[in-house]
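Bug #2210: token dump truncated for Polyprenyl synthetase?
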Amino acid sequence: MDDLERRRALVEDRLEAVCEVVEPDTLGARIAHVALSGGKRVRPTVTMLACEAAGGDSEAAVDFAVGIELVHSASLVVDDIIDDSAVRRGTDSAWASFGYGPALITSDGLLGEAFALFATDERAMEVVSEALVELGEGEATELVDHPTAEDEYMELARRKTGALFRAAAELGAVAADADARTVEAFGEYAEGVGVAFQIRDDVLDATADADDLGKPTGQDSAMERPSFVEITNLTPEEGTERARRKADAALSALDSVELADERAAGYLRDLAEFVVERER
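Reproduced locally. Full output below:
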């Protein structure tokens, strides 16, 4: 098992353990349907790698890693309701499986389990609380105040996607007991990666095959949601180049502080490349 698979296995095992003790059993099964349905586990991997790169032991960051994945999963449940999307990660979305009301309760349950994992650390609670405020503002902006220019889109992407990426990395640095400057640098890195991820996601929504992507495509256009491709009128290739610029800025932030584990830092650099080049 390679290093990344080892980290992913730690996250999967802890996720399963969290789901198994949720009460009542019906809610636990629904949370498991959402949380254990697959996914790239990018955010929890960032948490663990950031912890190592900041000089900590990744196993000390497992609970925070699982917590940020639960928060992300909760946001996806709501996204799928807003988008009327019946498929998520190649399987039925929560609302398509349980109905709208039970899906919203499942989202609440995911958040509750997440905050139980963060509650042991005041700094972790602050990091995630700030991220959720940003995420909520981003979701509201997307629904009622559609951006019409590139700079407005970038601010939306920072809130909607960058905020949780930032929280993931900052949680890892907090788990390593890093100083405030290091926590901030990791946050800047991950926020840039998150924005690059969102730009690339919009490009894929406009160009990829739904079977390859594992979810419906063309959603941005169908739902009249702000898409980087449509707002800027850039070609998909030009959109990907914009994503690359964000990824490059993220790498500069990462390199602005002393890194304790170069192997972990190398994986974080690889991630900045992956989010730009990914095909799903």
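Output looks complete on our side. The first strand starts at residue 87 and ends at 88. Marking as cannot-reproduce; reopen if the truncation happens again.
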